[in-house]
Design brief:
- The chain has about 350 residues and is mostly helical.
- The protein folds into two domains: about 160 residues, no CATH class; about 180 residues, no CATH class.
- It contains 19 helices and four strands.
- A four-stranded mixed β-sheet has the order 1-2-4-3.
- Strand 3 and strand 4 form a beta hairpin.
- The longest helix is centred in the first third of the chain and has 19 residues.
- The radius of gyration is 22 Å and the shape is elongated.
- It starts with a helix and ends in a 5-residue tail after the last helix.
């Protein structure tokens, strides 16, 4: 059945409103799952502030002092993330310090970014509280998971929103959460549909996405759309368990309207992939656009989100989990043959 007929059949406008109401109701119920806290508070550090505070007349000395505070992370930040080429040589004659680091600390544009971060984030209290809740839930599902330190930093608009550093730390680029209207996002090539997510309330989403992807790296080679759909669906199911206090549309990276459209059009979305023979396709150019971010899904109405298959994968995983309530979260998200997983989920789009 095509989307035009399906939309008429579903009585779009009524279903759309019902979808919005259902989303609101569902998340008001989920908040009761987040009462617990870590027995030991997260250790958080403001590397952005520490870097900004370095005396530009004594840069090498300032970095040497920070080395004691960030014994392994500092060099990773300076050389791997920022590409300054200092290589642990904290000497004012080192070109990486004399030129690169000096420019980073004094150029008006770079300095302005440090100042903007300081204005937007005089503290990270609310973010810390959400991360604390998320890691407390993560420990329930993965008791042996080592709680990392949190290092807030300035990535100089290099799009390092959140990333894992071994199992020791998670880096969070505060420069990537300055709000959708921050003027320089467009100048570094970030499209409008992505800049809408560059706000502080997306930090928990990005942090726990990075945690999950460290456990289960996303694999595309020789995979069908169904394979990738379920990989992304399992990630979303994981997020629904560890950060249930974050609205589903934010966990998915959708607008509320896009999520409501998905809820109202589930059967049409599923039949679209069946009719187009995409579900079991390995033709990357044809299928990857339904997995990766985009303004809208190819061949679907403008109300659709670009990575529409991720939401459908989440629905499949949720159906599987409902049929296997005896299984742990780790067992549900573990690798499994995609066709077998779909069959055992007994998924039926609504």
């Amino acid at each position: 059945m095509g989307f035009t007929k399906m939309k008429c059949f579903l009585k779009w406008r009524t279903a759309y409103v019902i979808g919005l109401l259902a989303v609101t109701t569902m998340f008001s119920c989920q908040n009761s799952e987040t009462d617990s806290r870590l027995s030991t508070p997260l250790k958080t550090y403001r590397l952005d502030r520490d870097i900004a505070a370095i005396d530009t007349l004594h840069i090498a000395e300032g970095l040497a002092k920070l080395k004691f505070k960030y014994p392994t992370f500092l060099d990773f930040y300076l050389d791997t993330l920022m590409g300054l080429g200092i290589q642990g040589n904290y000497n004012d004659s080192n070109p990486g310090i004399k030129l690169g680091m000096h420019d980073f600390l004094t150029h008006p544009d770079f300095r302005g970014l440090f100042d903007t971060i300081a204005q937007h984030f005089p503290n990270t209290t609310s973010i810390d509280e959400d991360l604390n809740k998320g890691f407390s839930l993560l420990k329930k599902y993965y008791p042996k998971y080592p709680i990392p330190e949190i290092v807030y930093l300035n990535s100089n608009l290099n799009n390092y929103a959140a990333f894992t550093y071994d199992t020791l730390a998670i880096g969070i680029g505060l420069d990537m959460y300055l709000g959708a209207d921050y003027p320089y996002y467009a100048s570094v090539g970030i499209p409008q549909y992505l800049s809408q997510r560059l706000t502080p309330d997306y930090v928990p989403v990005n942090v726990f996405q990075s945690v999950y992807r460290a456990m289960h790296p996303f694999v595309m080679d020789n995979k069908t759309l169904l394979d990738m759909m379920l990989q992304k669906g399992k990630e979303q199911y994981f997020l629904s368990k560890v950060i249930p206090f974050v609205d589903e549309h934010k966990r998915m990276g959708y607008t509320p309207e896009q999520l409501a459209w998905c809820e109202a059009s589930e059967a049409a979305i599923y039949h679209f992939f069946i009719e187009k023979q995409l579900l079991y396709s390995t033709h990357m150019q044809s299928i990857i656009r339904y997995v990766m971010d985009g303004p809208t899904a190819a061949g679907m109405p403008p109300e659709s989100p670009g990575n529409i298959s991720n939401w459908l994968g989440y629905r499949m995983v949720k159906a599987y989990a409902d049929k296997h309530s005896e299984m742990s979260l780790a067992q549900i998200v573990a690798p499994m043959d995609a066709q077998k997983f779909l069959q055992e989920s007994k998924y039926k789009p609504k």
